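Hi R.,

As promised, here are both runs. First protein below:
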Amino acid sequence: MDLKEVAILGENEGRHWYYASKGRALLQLLKGLNVETVLDIGAGSGVFSRQLLDAGICRRAVCVDPAYRAESIERHNDREIRFARAPDKGPADIVLMMDVLEHVDDDVALLRGSTARLRPQDQVVITVPAFQFLWSGHDEFLEHRRRYTRRQLEAVVRAAGLEPVKSGYFFGLLFPFAAIQRLLGNWRRKSGAGPTKSALSTQGKAVNSLLIAVHDLERRVVFPFNRLAGLTVYCLARRLG
C-alpha cells in the first residue's frame, strides 16, 4: 500500500473497507498455502503481510519500501516482520506486489528483479489499478504512471519470465459508480474546480461494515469469474521451471 494513504487512513488502515476487502481477496487466492517467508515489495505499512501472518499462510514477512525512514524488526502475533528499504538475498516463497508496478517507468524490470529469487512454481501476487480511462486526480496524487487492463498485466507478467495462473478484476460491484464519479471529477478538474487527491477516505463504522459485506458477497460469487471490469486488476503468477 502507498504510505501516502497510511497518512490519510491512520493506523487502522487494515480495518478500512478497501484494504480489508482486498486482503480477503488475497487470502482467497492463496488459500491452502503454508510457507516460510513472504516478500512484500512496496509494502507500506505492511497491512497485507500482517493479514497473511494472521491467516497462517506464512511464518515470516519481509516488507520492502524505499520510503521507510529506517529499517526495523517487529513481532506480530509472535511472528517476525522485517521492514527494509531494499530486499536482502534471503529466500522467499511468495512475493507480493500490491499496487506497485504502476509507480515505476519500467514495470517489467521491477517485476523480473523482484521475483528472481523465487524457485520454480513459487508464486507472486500482483495488483494494479484498472483501466486508463479511469485516470484521475487520485492517480496523480499517488504518482502513478499508468493503469492496466487484465491482458496488459498478463503481458507484463510474461515479459518478466513468469507464468500467469489466474487473473481478473476485483471491486467490480463498485466499478460503475466509481467510473461515473471519476469521469465527473475529471470534467470538474478540466474546469479548474477538481482537486488532486486520493479517492480513499475514512468512513463511519456502519458504512465501512456495509462496504466490507458488499465485497465479501462479490468475493464469494463474482470474484472467481470476473474477467470483465473492476477497479483493481490482479494476477496470480508463478516462476517458470
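And here is the second one, sequence first, then its C-alpha cells:
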Amino acid sequence: MVSFERVGLRYGLGPEILRDISFSLAPGSLHFLTGASGAGKSSLLSLLYLARKPSRGTVKLFGEDVTAIARRDLPPLRRQIGVVFQDFRLLDHLPVIDNVALPLRVQGIADAQVREHAAELLAWVGLGDHLNALPPTLSGGQKQRVAIARAVIGRPRLLIADEPTGNVDDRIAVRLMRLFDELNRLGTTIVIATHNMQLVNESRHPELRLDGGALYQTRKGAA
C-alpha cells in the first residue's frame, strides 16, 4: 500500500527535516505516527497525501512510484486518499451535509446520489440530526466527525488523520478512535498522527515514532 525507501525532505536550502525514512504499510493496517512537536509528523503526512515530493529517496503508493510521475498524473492517486486535517478545513458557509458531499460533487457525481450517501455517513458518525447545521454551530468533536465523514465519502484506500483527537476531550477521543477502528476493519489503511500517548499505549496497533528526523517502528501485535 505504502513504501518509503531512504526518503529525505528539506525545505529550500535548509537542513533535512526528515532523513533516511524507510517503512512500509500493509493494506488494511492501522499505524499511529508519534513524535514531539517539530519532529516532522506533518511533513511526513504531506508526503503521504501527495502535497509535496521528497528531496530524495523513493515513495510508492498503491504500487506507483510517485516521485517519478508527472504532476498531471497525481489526481487519480489523490482520489484514493482521504485526509482529516487538524484544523478540520470545513466551509463555514455550507451546511454539514454539503461539506461532506463536496468531494463527490467535485468528481461530477449526481447530486441526489451524493446527498443520500452524505446523509448515510453523517448518521454513521452520529450526526444524522445535524445535516443542515452550519459548522460554526458545532462543537469541536462534532466538527471532527464531519471531517471524518468528508474524508471517507470517496471510499479511500488510504486514510490519513492529523491529530484527530487534539481538539476534543478524552470521551470524544475514544469515540473517534472507535470510528477509525471500524473503518480499518472494513479494509481502509489508516495513519493517525497524534500526541495522545494514552491512546497509543492502550491500542494494539503499531507505532511509527519520529525523533530527530529519523523514524522508529514499535510493533505491539497484529495490526
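A quick note on the second one: The longest strand covers residues 16-25. Let me know what you think.

Best,
J.
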